């Protein structure tokens, strides 16, 4: 089958340059993406500060969370604005050099985010199931080279489509506009091959690793829970004889059991949110490139645009979801956050007090002016 026959069926052309002609929908999309960027900036900024100056979180996992926050920050701040302006306005309004640069940064950061999640899941798997193995020791001593390798491989992967990414001129009502495209000068087969590899590399492999690692961790925690339940039943038989010690042990068992429950819930949340955020946009792009999705009527066109906006926003929303899941659900993170904010408030109060003292002291300073006596001669 030739390329002409395989091309996606797009037989509807909108009558306006703006893909979304309704102003209120444009405002909703712009506000939604603006809030996404703000949430990503604030959330990941807090994570970077807490993970840098915190003391309670594990040093090894802190490096991975910091790396994840940096990549999510770049996605939320540098990648989101380019997309929603292109959707709302229907053409590229930024300098031409930002087209390949924005595409490069987006692919780079998506790769780093996906594989940082993968590294975190595998590191947790080794630390939970094989805490005394050489592999666990290797992870603890080689975290910096591993993260650096992730950035290098991600940059090489993002560079592949860079030569085909640039702006293209088009005319609408005899007016020249620019469009940012990443598939200039490549065949349909190569485009489909790249999109399929992108689905496999940035979603399928990380998702399979997440499922494998966290399912194994959950099974291990459930076994420990069963063992603790059995041991607790055994301890209750001697509870009457050693009442005080038994009461303390029982409370410790209940506390550990509760922490295990929270861990299982957090791991399940990680898998579900990762799937919800990234699967729709990856599947949508592949279906669009393989001509499974087409539009020939106005309703089909707007359904396609609405579906794309929803899928893309979910992917971008992962940039502020990760700080919530990995950090704000952690008691260690909350303790560090409270301590850092308390220190900041104390320093701010001290600085304000010193400024107030300075100005109050200046205002109460008395200035003495000596007036010389003038001799007056009576006539």
Give descriptors for this structure:
single chain; 379 residues; mainly alpha; two-stranded antiparallel ribbon; 10 helices; 2 strands; 4% strand; disordered N terminus; disordered C terminus
Note down, in words, how this protein is organized.
The chain has 379 residues and is mainly alpha-helical. It has 10 helices and 2 strands. The chain has a two-stranded antiparallel ribbon with strand order 1-2. The protein is globular and about 80 Å long. The relative contact order is 0.12.
Helices and strands, with pairings:
Elements: H1 3-6, H2 23-53, H3 59-89, H4 98-129, H5 134-141, H6 143-159, E1 166-172, E2 175-181, H7 188-237, H8 243-289, H9 298-328, H10 331-363
Antiparallel strand pairs: 1-2
InterPro entries: GPCR_Rhodpsn, GPCR_Rhodpsn_7TM
GO molecular function, one term: G protein-coupled receptor activity
Protein name: G-protein coupled receptors family 1 profile domain-containing protein
């Amino acid at each position: 089958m030739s390329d002409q026959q395989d091309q996606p069926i797009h037989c509807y052309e909108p009558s306006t340059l703006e893909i979304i002609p309704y102003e209120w929908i444009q405002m909703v999309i712009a506000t939604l993406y603006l809030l996404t960027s703000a949430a990503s900036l604030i959330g990941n900024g807090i994570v970077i500060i807490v993970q840098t100056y915190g003391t309670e979180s594990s040093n090894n996992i802190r490096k991975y969370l910091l790396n994840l926050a940096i990549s999510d920050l770049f996605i939320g701040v540098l990648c989101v604005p380019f997309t929603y302006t292109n959707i709302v306005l229907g053409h590229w309004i930024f300098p031409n050099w930002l087209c390949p640069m924005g595409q490069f940064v987006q692919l780079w950061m998506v790769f780093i985010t996906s594989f940082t999640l993968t590294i975190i899941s595998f590191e947790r798997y080794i630390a939970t199931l094989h805490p005394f193995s050489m592999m666990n020791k290797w992870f603890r001593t080689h975290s910096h080279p591993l993260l650096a390798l992730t950035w290098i491989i991600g940059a090489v992967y993002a560079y592949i489509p860079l030569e085909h990414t640039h702006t293209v001129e088009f005319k609408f009502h005899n007016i020249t506009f620019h469009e940012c495209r990443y598939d200039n000068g490549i065949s349909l087969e190569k485009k489909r091959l790249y999109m399929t590899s992108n689905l496999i590399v940035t979603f399928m492999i990380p998702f399979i690793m997440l499922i494998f690692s966290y399912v194994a961790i959950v099974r291990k925690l459930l076994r420990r829970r069963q063992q603790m339940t059995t041991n607790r039943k055994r301890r209750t038989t001697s509870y009457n004889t050693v009442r005080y010690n038994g009461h303390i042990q029982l409370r410790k068992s209940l506390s550990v059991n509760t922490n295990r429950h929270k861990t299982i819930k957090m791991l399940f949340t990680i898998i579900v949110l990762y799937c919800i955020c990234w699967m729709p946009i990856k599947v949508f792009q592949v279906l669009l490139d393989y001509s499974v999705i087409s539009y020939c009527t106005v309703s089909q066109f707007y359904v396609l645009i609405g579906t794309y906006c929803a899928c893309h926003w979910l992917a971008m929303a992962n940039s502020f979801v990760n700080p919530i899941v990995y950090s704000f659900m952690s008691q260690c993170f909350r303790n560090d956050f409270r301590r850092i904010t308390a220190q900041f408030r104390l320093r701010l109060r001290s600085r304000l007090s010193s400024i107030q003292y300075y100005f109050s002291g200046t205002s109460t300073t008395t200035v003495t002016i000596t007036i010389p006596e003038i001799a007056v001669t009576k006539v």
